[in-house]
Each structure stands twice: as structure tokens, then as C-alpha cells.
């Protein structure tokens, strides 16, 4: 089967995108297709697959599948790429529009120069903080902030945040010491997170900057995670490491995102998105 695709990335977090306004793929093939396109040797090479589809609730819809074929409910970098594509391909006519995700609709604004989108701001909604909304097992509390979290012989301290998908944030003294390879997969699959978790290590540089590295659920180490950067700002605020209602520059492996958790409780993310390639994937 020949499947038309576009490859895009947000700060190096790359996905193969299918425009389902133009073509269709059967639901039962999607998980397998995500694994195949993601393979760097036998596929296109990406962190997963994203579907851009017609929506009855918003202007356009987005679904995300991780590299291992599992479906996620939200994707910050994917949202910026979807927004860029939707505007440039004429799926939407205005610079301000809505995208539907499996975790709700988000408001989007694209900045345009010569008909090209060069920056995207997304209202990522209010973080969900209760233990059951992560979800994380244990006594239901309003928040899970700096809670001791034993992994093997070590005790780490976790702050848990849902941005529509689950994040476990750990603060480290220096980002170079973030134990991504050693602990990323172990924490992702820890039974205390029944749906798995995205794992972030964060260094507070000062009250306006964070250094950030991520192990993503279903994809492993990636160069950036938009929902993760939002979760990091929320977690740093909850731990009183940065002030609320201030724009924070988050340094990810693939570049920077600007994130603000505002007075009304909404998290705003601003960054760019790039098109890498377009073509046809030969799916067998
Ligand atoms: N890269 C994403 C998040 C993708 C989904 C995530 N791995 C999950 O399973 O929740 C982002 O930019 O937010």
C-alpha cells in the first residue's frame, strides 16, 4: 500500500504525519504502521506517527502514536507541527484555530510571514495534578509534589503532572548527570504508573530558565517533549523553584521552548516547527 506522508519535527522531536483529509488508513493498521515508519533502518525514521484528521469538535484533529505503536493522548511538539501544516496546507483559514486531541481541544495561534508559519503558541490547558488524574497509584492527594520515590536502592523525589498525558518530573543538580539511560525505561514501566509515564529530568538554571531531558513513554530518549516541558514548568512552580505566571525558557536537547503557567491556571507553550520531507511510504 502506498501512503503519502510528511515528516516534520519540533526541536528534533520528529514524527511522520498523515493528512487524513486527503487519504485514509484503516484503524487496525495504525499501531503497526507507527512502528514501521519510525524504524530508522527499514522505515522513514521518527519518534512515531501523527494523524491529522477532520474533526467535528474543532477545526482539525490530531492523534499521536509512539514509536512502539502505543497511542498517546497529547503531544506538544506534534501540536505545533500540526498547526503549521493545517495553516500552510489551507485546512484552516484563520491564524487562530482549535485542534482536537484525545485529551481535549486546544487553542492555537500561528505567526506567519510570507504565508509560512514561523512560530506557534498553544494554550495547553490546565495541568491535572491529582494522583488519580496522572494516573499514579497510592493515597489520593491534591498533588504529588517532591514525593520520595524508591527505584532500586536509590530514593528519588517525584513531582507528577498530567498535561493530558502523564509526566514524572525529577529535579537534578546538573542536567549532564540526568540518569536517562539507567532509569528512564525503569520508571516509564514502574507499576506505580499503571498507564506508564513520560520521565523528565530537570535542572533549575535560574528563575527564568530550566534545562531539560526526557525519556518518553513508548519512544525512549527524544530530543524534545512539548508536554514534558510544560510539565517541568508546572513541577518547578509547585516546588517553588520558579515563580508562577512568568515565561520560562526551557532548554531541551533540540532547542528552546517558552512556557508560561499563567494566573488563570493555563499553560502556554511557544516554539517553532519544521517540515523535513514529503513523499510516499511503501507499507507492507
Ligand atoms: N513528544 C510528545 C509526547 C508524545 C506522547 C508521549 N510519549 C506519551 O505517550 O504520552 C510531546 O512533544 O509532548
TrEMBL record:
Enzyme Commission code: 5.1.1.7
Site, Could be important to modulate the pK values of the two catalytic cysteine residues: residue positions: 167, 216
Biological process annotations from GO: lysine biosynthetic process via diaminopimelate
Gene3D superfamilies: Diaminopimelate Epimerase, Chain A, domain 1
GO CC term, one of those recorded: cytosol
Binding-site list for substrate: 13, 66, 76-77, 165, 198, 216-217, 226-227
Pathway connected to this protein: Amino-acid biosynthesis; L-lysine biosynthesis via DAP pathway; DL-2,6-diaminopimelate from LL-2,6-diaminopimelate: step 1/1
The entry's keywords: Amino-acid biosynthesis, Cytoplasm, Isomerase, Lysine biosynthesis
Membrane-spanning parts: none
Cellular location(s): Cytoplasm
GO molecular function, one term: diaminopimelate epimerase activity
Source organism superkingdom: Bacteria
Main location: cytoplasm
Chemical reaction(s) catalysed: (2S,6S)-2,6-diaminopimelate = meso-2,6-diaminopimelate
Active site positions: 75, 225
Biological role stated in the UniProt entry: Catalyzes the stereoinversion of LL-2,6-diaminopimelate (L,L-DAP) to meso-diaminopimelate (meso-DAP), a precursor of L-lysine and an essential component of the bacterial peptidoglycan.
Subunit organization: Homodimer.
Family: Belongs to the diaminopimelate epimerase family.
The protein's name: Diaminopimelate epimerase
Species of the source: Ornithinibacillus bavariensis
Amino acid at each position: 500500500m502506498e501512503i503519502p506522508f510528511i515528516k516534520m519535527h519540533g526541536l528534533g522531536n520528529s514524527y511522520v504525519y498523515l493528512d487524513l483529509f486527503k487519504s485514509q488508513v484503516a484503524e487496525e493498521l495504525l499501531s503497526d504502521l507507527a512502528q514501521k515508519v519510525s524504524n530508522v533502518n527499514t522505515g522513514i525514521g521518527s519518534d512515531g506517527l501523527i494523524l491529522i484528521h477532520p474533526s467535528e469538535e474543532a477545526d482539525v484533529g490530531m492523534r499521536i502514536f509512539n514509536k512502539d505503536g502505543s497511542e498517546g493522548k497529547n503531544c506538544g511538539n506534534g501540536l505545533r507541527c500540526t498547526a503549521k501544516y493545517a495553516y500552510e496546507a489551507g485546512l484552516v483559514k484563520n491564524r487562530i484555530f482549535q485542534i482536537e486531541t484525545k485529551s481535549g481541544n486546544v487553542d492555537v495561534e500561528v505567526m506567519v510571514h510570507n504565508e509560512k508559519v514561523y512560530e506557534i503558541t498553544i494554550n495547553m490547558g490546565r495541568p491535572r495534578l491529582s494522583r488519580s488524574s496522572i494516573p499514579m497509584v497510592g493515597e489520593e492527594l491534591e498533588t504529588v509534589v517532591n514525593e520520595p520515590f524508591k527505584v532500586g536502592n536509590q530514593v528519588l523525589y517525584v513531582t507528577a503532572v498530567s498535561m493530558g498525558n502523564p509526566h514524572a518530573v525529577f529535579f537534578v543538580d546538573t542536567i549532564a548527570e540526568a540518569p536517562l539511560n539507567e532509569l528512564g525505561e525503569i520508571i516509564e514501566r514502574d507499576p506505580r504508573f499503571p498507564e506508564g509515564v513520560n520521565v523528565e529530568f530537570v535542572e533549575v538554571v535560574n528563575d527564568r530558565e530550566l534545562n531539560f531531558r526526557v525519556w518518553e513513554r513508548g519512544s525512549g530518549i527524544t530530543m524534545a517533549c512539548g508536554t514534558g516541558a510544560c510539565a517541568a514548568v508546572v513541577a518547578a512552580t509547585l516546588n517553588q523553584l520558579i515563580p508562577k505566571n512568568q515565561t520560562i525558557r526551557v532548554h531541551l536537547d533540540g532547542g528552546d521552548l517558552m512556557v508560561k503557567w499563567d494566573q488563570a491556571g493555563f499553560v502556554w507553550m511557544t516554539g517553532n516547527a519544521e517540515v523535513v520531507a514529503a513523499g510516499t511510504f511503501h507499507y507492507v
